[in-house]
Amino acid sequence: MAFGSKIRTWFNGTWHEGDIPPVMNAADHGTWLGTTVFDGARWFEGLAPPDLDAHCARVNRSASALMLTPTVTTEDMVDIVREGGLTGFSTDQAVYIRPMYWGGIDPDMSASAIAPPDPGTTGFAISLEAIGMADAKATTTLATTRFRRPVLESAVVNAKAGCLYPNNARMLVEARSKATPTPWPPTPWAMSPKAPPPMSSSCGMAKSLHRLPTAPSWRALPARATSPT
């Protein structure tokens, strides 16, 4: 799902221009059963994030949480990104730095077809993608959803794993389906002495947002201004 204006990919020990195919194979454990992990950091205004090493360390911890064996040290990962990858971008480009691991193929499946394969088959790549930062005045909206964050007993929430993100996606789709959000902060006329009386609904400014008919206890929250991440 490439959507950046420029991509560079580290795979099999070298940098490649573009979103190269194939990185994962059809029979890889990660393709078949979703054993993928990643992390994300942002490079912008010509500066690499000071915590790039922390992001690289976390992707290794995420791999271990999915029972994948990390194959690249934190230090080597940082060097790969800084010394070769970012040099291919201009200083006015914002770059999303995304290291990732996935489960490969266990040739004989001697342990299990479901459990992650032999450590020597773990795949690794880094994707650098030019994606602009959000505008400094950008805002976001909030809403409730029936879907919940899983817990450690039912999912690998101690990893930044790709298999967790479909749950996030359905939360977003449900939130967006509720209604057109009410702007926040309110328009200037709403702050004037002649403004209409406050809404009596418990939803406050979210009165105009629709509640889902199957769960009257759910309600949309007003949009709130936040700083971009």
In short:
This protein is of the alpha+beta class and 229 residues long.
Relevant terms:
alpha+beta; globular; D-amino Acid Aminotransferase, Chain A, domain 1
Describe the structure.
It is a single chain. With 229 residues, this protein is of the alpha+beta class. It has two domains: 7-130, D-amino Acid Aminotransferase, Chain A, domain 1; 137-229, no CATH class. The chain contains four helices and six strands; from the N terminus they run ββαββααββα. It has helices spanning 29-33, 52-65, 74-85, 165-178; strands spanning 7-11, 14-17, 36-38, 41-43, 95-102, 123-130. A hairpin with a 2-residue loop joins strand 1 and strand 2. The longest helix is centred in the first third of the chain and has 14 residues, at 52-65.
Question: How would you summarize the topology of this molecule?
Answer:
Elements (H helix, E strand, L loop, with lengths): L6 E5 L2 E4 L11 H5 L2 E3 L2 E3 L8 H14 L8 H12 L9 E8 L20 E8 L34 H14 L51
Antiparallel strand pairs: 1-2, 1-6, 3-5, 4-5, 5-6
